[in-house]
Q: What sequence folds into this?
């Protein structure tokens, strides 16, 4: 059982305490922000890399079921089959599960970084119950006192984007950008990668990749043999700040898609092999009058929860000036739906379904179509009047294609408080 340590603790004492655990969290990239979606708490994929008395677990943050060839070579081939058999997703409510042959050992310790799972994960009441366990040892690497930090046994100060080295990949453009630190880390703040290196050393892991610096990790991100990055070099990128990918302005103007045929496929053999319709088709939501009519009788309104204009998911909610602009959690509801429920603008309303509920101020508006309510998000729970947010209502179910989140596949009912 993990030893519970008081929050106020020297960093070296925390490293000593880590020797009680026989596993280690390993980041798959430097320190940059990555989206954490769907059924993850702070990580997504888990790999059991050996099955000896000491089991090392690698948490792969968002990169899917892929481990580097260099990493795989370090393990006996007899174990490789076990690596993939043991791969599984860490679901939102897995912190509530006990040891069993089906689940495996109960989760006894969690390190959360680059995420605020208590606020952002679906069906968050279960997530919160998991983090509230008295026997769960929780460490959070953060800049701010988020909802998740409230459940931490230890909070370690993480560096900001201004204080560490990282790479920004292309996102809607054709450039790779070096994130060079502008200042040295303030106080005791450390990059996530440095915290994991120090943990590895204290826990006796001496694999070569644990000695890689942030610059080493950044340099390994480039495949100079790839046609799109033949001229890439980390030292040059770090010096110049940005480099353009070796691709034309319209990369797919002449086709060359990453499909077996190289074409934009209207008929997909891969989808057929996955048990999906190989042709474009309409698939109704899990929760709708069409797919679940009995549920829709109880909860007749569809709900979506896009980010507030002044927030970025749960980021920036701690900034008072931005919160003041938004005021408080709101629910946009169509006039027809509001009239049927005797709701007027400014009324406090309860939005609920079988998973949970939340309180918000109603805004009656034509911006929401009939049958749909819009709960702009994501408020930190501690800053809401009822200590809840929209993810009390969202589901852990995943899409049939891509296993993505279904945040916008939600039925609810609304009533005046």
A:
């Amino acid at each position: 059982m993990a030893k519970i340590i008081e929050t106020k603790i020297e960093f070296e004492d925390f490293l000593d305490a880590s020797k009680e655990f026989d596993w280690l969290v390993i980041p798959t990239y430097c320190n940059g922000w990555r989206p954490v979606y769907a059924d993850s708490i702070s990580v997504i994929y888990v790999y059991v890399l050996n099955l000896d008395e000491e089991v090392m677990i690698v948490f792969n943050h968002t990169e899917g079921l892929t481990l580097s060839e260099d990493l795989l070579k370090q393990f006996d081939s007899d174990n490789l089959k076990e690596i993939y058999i043991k791969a599984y997703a860490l679901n939102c409510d897995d912190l509530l599960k006990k040891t069993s042959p089906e689940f495996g050992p109960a989760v006894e310790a969690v390190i959360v970084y680059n995420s605020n799972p208590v606020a952002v994960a679906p069906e968050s009441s279960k997530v919160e119950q998991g983090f509230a366990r008295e026997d769960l040892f929780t460490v959070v690497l953060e800049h701010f006192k988020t909802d998740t930090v409230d459940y931490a046994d230890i909070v370690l100060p993480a560096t900001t984007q201004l204080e560490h080295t990282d790479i920004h990949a292309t996102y809607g453009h054709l450039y790779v950008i070096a994130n060079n630190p502008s200042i040295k880390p303030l106080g005791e703040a450390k990059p996530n990668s440095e915290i994991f290196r120090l943990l590895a050393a204290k826990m006796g892991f001496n694999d070569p990749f644990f000695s890689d610096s942030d610059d080493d990790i950044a340099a390994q991100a480039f495949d100079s043999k790839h046609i799109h990055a033949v001229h890439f070099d980390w030292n040059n990128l770090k010096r110049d700040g940005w480099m353009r990918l070796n691709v034309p302005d319209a990369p797919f103007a002449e086709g060359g898609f990453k499909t077996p045929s190289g074409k934009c496929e209207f008929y997909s053999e891969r989808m057929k092999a996955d048990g999906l319709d190989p042709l474009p088709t309409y698939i109704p939501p899990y929760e709708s009058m069409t797919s679940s009519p009995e549920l829709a009788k109880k909860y007749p309104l569809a709900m979506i929860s896009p980010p507030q204009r002044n927030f970025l998911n749960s980021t920036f909610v701690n900034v008072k000036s931005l919160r003041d602009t938004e005021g408080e959690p709101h629910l946009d509801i169509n006039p027809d739906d509001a009239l049927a429920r005797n709701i007027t603008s400014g009324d406090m309303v309860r939005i609920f379904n079988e998973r949970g509920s939340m309180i918000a101020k109603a805004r009656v508006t034509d911006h929401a179509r009939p049958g749909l309510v819009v709960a702009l998000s994501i408020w930190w729970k501690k800053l809401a009047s009822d200590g809840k947010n929209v993810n009390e209502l969202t589901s852990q179910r995943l899409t049939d294609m891509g296993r993505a989140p279904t945040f916008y596949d939600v039925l609810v009912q609304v009533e005046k408080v």
Remarks:
- The chain has twelve helices and 15 strands.
